[in-house]
Amino acid sequence: MDELISEFLSETNDSLGDLDNQLIVLEQNPDDHAIIDSIFRVMHTIKGTCGFLGLDRLAKVAHASEDVLDNIRNEALKPTPQVISLILESIDRIKSLVEALEESGAEPQGSDQELIEKLHDCATGKLSSVSAAVAAEPAPVEMLQENEAATSDTDALQAAFDAAPGPEEEGGIPTDSDDLQALFDATPGPADMATPPQKADAGISNEAKAKAVAAGLAATEKTAAKEKDEGGEKDKNANQFIRVNLGLLENLMQMASELVLTRNQLLQLNRNAAASTFNTPLQRLSHITSDLQEGVMKTRMQAIGNAWSKFPRIVRDLSIDLGKKIDLVMVGEDTEIDRQMLEMVKDPLTHMVRNACDHGMDNPEQRRAAGKNETGKVTLHAYHEGGNVIIKISDDGPGINVDKVKKKAIDSGLTTEAEAATMSNKQIYQFILKPGFSTADKVTAVSGRGVGMDVVVSNIVKIGGTLEVNSVPGKGSDFIVKLPLTLAIMSVLVIETGGQSYAIPQLRVSEIVHAKFRDQQVDNTLNNEEFYIETLNQSKVLRLRGELLPLISLNEILKLPPKEEPKPEGNVLSINSKAKKQYVVICEMGSHHFGLMVDRVFDTEEIVVKPLSPMVRGIDVFSGCTILGDGSVIMILDPNGLIKTMGNINFKKEEEQEHKLRNVGSGEERINFLLFRAGGKAPRAVPVELVSRLEEIDTSKIEWAGNRQVIQYRGELMRLVTADDSYQIPKEGIAQVVVFNDEGKVMGLVVEHIIDIIEHKMNVRSLVGQSGILGSLVINEATYDLIDVGFYFSNTFSDWLATKEMETKSGKIATDGAAKRILLIDDSPFFRKFMKPILIVANYQVVTAENALKALDILEESADFDAIITDIDMPHMTGLEFAEKCKENPRLKHIPLVALTSYASSDVREKDTKNCFNGFVSKSDRDKLVDTITQILHHTMAA
Amino acid sequence: MSNQLAIADSHSPAVAGGNHKEFVTMRLNGQLFGIPVNYVQDVLRPQKIAAVPLAPPEVAGLINLRGRIVTVIDMRKKLSLPENNDRTGTMMVVIEHRHELYSLIVDSIGEVLKLSPKDFDLTPPNISSAWQAYAAGVYRLEEELMVVIEASSLLPQESKLETV
């Protein structure tokens, strides 16, 4: 093939990949000029290059599309869904032409006249007439929405563009199994343009191929792809990738592991031989072997996002077909998963995403009626957990209708009425996974024929996974796919107990402590440097930095004989028998923390998880096993399973979690504090978030400006302050400075020395009436003064916040019992962080949101707030719009609203507050803010 | 052992081409038994086994065989036989079942025998109950009887499909 052409192919394939998604982004943000420009550029480049290379068909299609894009760019044309559909269609055409070009080295025969004409019509604003004309086709009307109609010029194109209805379906409801299979197998890729789908199988392989090329790794055993490969296609270098047979990779991996074992043996032998000449070459061999093993392992891993790349398009097309508004949110796209698994899970995922859109999502009217945002959300979330890959497909639709499922299950003979009556909701949801089950009232083009979920389940089970269904009426449904990490790489900590080694996933280990058994008779004094194991009602607990952690003895759980007394040469230090020490591995499982007592702790190692044999699979505490570098087999502990074993140990579980959820942002929240000394009696603390950086300055370079000390810092003058008069900046030497920065105003707080940065609860006690100090913090039994950065700012910059009087009025604390919950909305991160401590000190629990949309999300979760404080000027949604939204919502309208603004004028104040706000505060007046809130709350309580 | 070898030899030429089956022979608590040779992947000397706490008692643990995990089954425990005190001849026989490798610990291992179907008999009902469950029949050898062990019956059956 011409070298130029292959270069063009490689470049074009890259840019086409992004175009789909960019267009969808454009559709959602029609005014985003950056995206229009970028799309235009790609199309322009394709047009130009094709013209240059004499690729006539491509050039014409690209040219016509470019015209449309140009009009969008000039704002002569709005990027309506119809227009976007048309452009997507032309991109599909370009893709198929490029693919054909890649295979044969020449453009295929054919005409694009129809498409080009449509593009022309579109560019000249005549699109609507086109839709009307096509709508007259003898297709079932309810299956063809407007946009869809615009695209159905040929059957093949229809198949390629419109994921859901296969070409056969226009004639009616398909009945033979191939069609049903095709439905499940979802989107036939654009490849189908070149080779129209003979049957479903070909569709899959083409799709798989397109994806494999895009993803960079390919090994497709599927026939169609193979045929093409064998067809002597040698020039296929559209990407810098080659296809490798999966079996070959598997083999390579096996051999690499063997090589590692052999290497280890060699190293061992060499170590025993004195002064060997093999040292250097062995070292090299060792390195190369490790690299090789790592490399081979990596070849199998792929980001799950590769399987998701098609979803934005699918969801978009579906939402148009179904007349719903659906957003797709993808989280954790870079979660790595074994390649083979990825391939296997792709079709089931596609199906579930379609299902979520079709069954899961309600239409805009229903959503509005339910008080939800018109636009529904389908969320894909992938993450690793406990040696598994979890993929969660959630929708925020109406949830699964239990009664309907029950009725259907009884009607179809899956269960009896009596049985169904005794079933839990969760058991009933399982029926939707049974063959031939569908709750959709009518069969749509998308789903509803009851083919699907059972196929999904069997495909997932085939790769050793499980599928769980959860649903909350009115809130939506979750489909949780749990896949084993058959070949996934994991880092583990190797420990020993009862004379045998075990591995713990490193991810779950937060720290390892060497703790003492506390013997009350011997020493009653607690030394802060040490960790003590104590017995509480026969359960062992560990006192760790002021928290009590439940302890589990691995020996006991595994029912191994109790540990022998440590031998002198052992790793376990034994000072004397009374001060026995114990290794404790602190494990973290979400909100669950516990300590695992083990005999010895070794190293961490990267391992490949192997599944357990069926004979030992049922044991909860193990998630798998592996072969270590030295060839020994070792079991992998599953912290999840370990937690289950200590069911009888009472430790804060769900209640705590719930508590945490409720108290987002309350005083329980942990934040990072910078601890330092700066004169005065007590050390000081400041939230790290407020600090912009830590610097060292040469104090001899300090200059005076007026009566202030300043220093040149990054080309500007930085004003220097001290915490209080008890500390003077030394005349000479190096001083440490904590730098604060707010909108260009830079202030340096000169300190004696930085002590530490520590994560701690924001449990401030306000007691001092001293300026510049918000209150006291007790961290690890020492008291720190929490400084009020605002005080220093306003002292240093007289115009900062135009402060009237900045004395802290510690007397103004809301004193009535339980802390009130406040939602604080402000787009300035500094202001949020600055306000929060002030409100906390005044005994409020504070949840912050950076914009009104976020705030609405938070309120959606829980409307349990006593007041909302919102900024007026914010991007996306102003405070006023937000307030109106709140007042419209029956759940929220009772919550008092306080407006924050930087306007000084009282006219604005009157106008705004009358409608929606219960109070109004100038940003510059923080004391009044606390006052206003206190008053409002008082008022509403009294009313 | 040599006499068995002799039997094998004396039989094979005469009935070659018949429906003969080959068995790897082993002994457990004195009893001779055999497993079809095509099941057997490997024969290993005893080696360090990684114990699996909380596993069923017959599972002795796991070993690594050329990068694959092998589940080791203690045949004496599986058949509820008494502990073996003489461990000198102990060997491990590796078999593959449903793409999983298992290794059976036996007291000793013998020859590979090629046996004629005419010597085959159904399992006598009075054979000890421990063997009964796993025996597929017996071969009448000159000196003694050889129990044919249905290897798959020792091992987990079709794994349950998890749907939830």
Keywords:
heterodimer, A: 943 residues, alpha/beta, Four Helix Bundle (Hemerythrin (Met), subunit A), Helix Hairpins, Heat Shock Protein 90, 6 domains, 6-stranded mixed beta barrel, 6-stranded mixed sheet, 34 strands, B: 164 residues, alpha+beta, OB fold (Dihydrolipoamide Acetyltransferase, E2P), 5-stranded mixed sheet, 16% helix, disordered C terminus
Tell me what you see in this structure.
The complex is a heterodimer of chains A (943) and B (164). Chain A is α/β, with parallel strands linked by helices and 943 residues long. Chain A folds into six domains: 3-230, HPT domain (Four Helix Bundle (Hemerythrin (Met), subunit A), Up-down Bundle); 246-300, Helix Hairpins (Orthogonal Bundle); 305-484, Histidine kinase-like ATPase, C-terminal domain (Heat Shock Protein 90, 2-Layer Sandwich); 489-646, OB fold (Dihydrolipoamide Acetyltransferase, E2P), CATH 2.40.50; 663-808, OB fold (Dihydrolipoamide Acetyltransferase, E2P); 811-943, Rossmann fold (3-Layer(aba) Sandwich). Chain A contains 30 helices and 34 strands. Residues 129-154, 156-238, 442-450, 565-578, 648-668 and 801-817 of chain A have low confidence and may be disordered. By secondary structure, chain B is of the alpha+beta class. Chain B has one domain (2-154): OB fold (Dihydrolipoamide Acetyltransferase, E2P), CATH 2.40.50. Chain B contains four helices and eleven strands, in the order αβββββαββββαββα. The longest helix of chain B has 14 residues, at 2-15. Chain B is globular. Residues 1-17 and 159-164 of chain B have low confidence and may be disordered. Chain A binds chain B through residues 254, 257-258, 261, 430, 433, 457, 461, 466-468, 498, 500, 558-560, 610, 613-617, 619, 621-622, 625, 627, 631-635, and chain B through 48, 50-56, 59, 61-64, 66-67, 69, 71, 73, 98, 100, 102, 155-156, 159, 161-164.
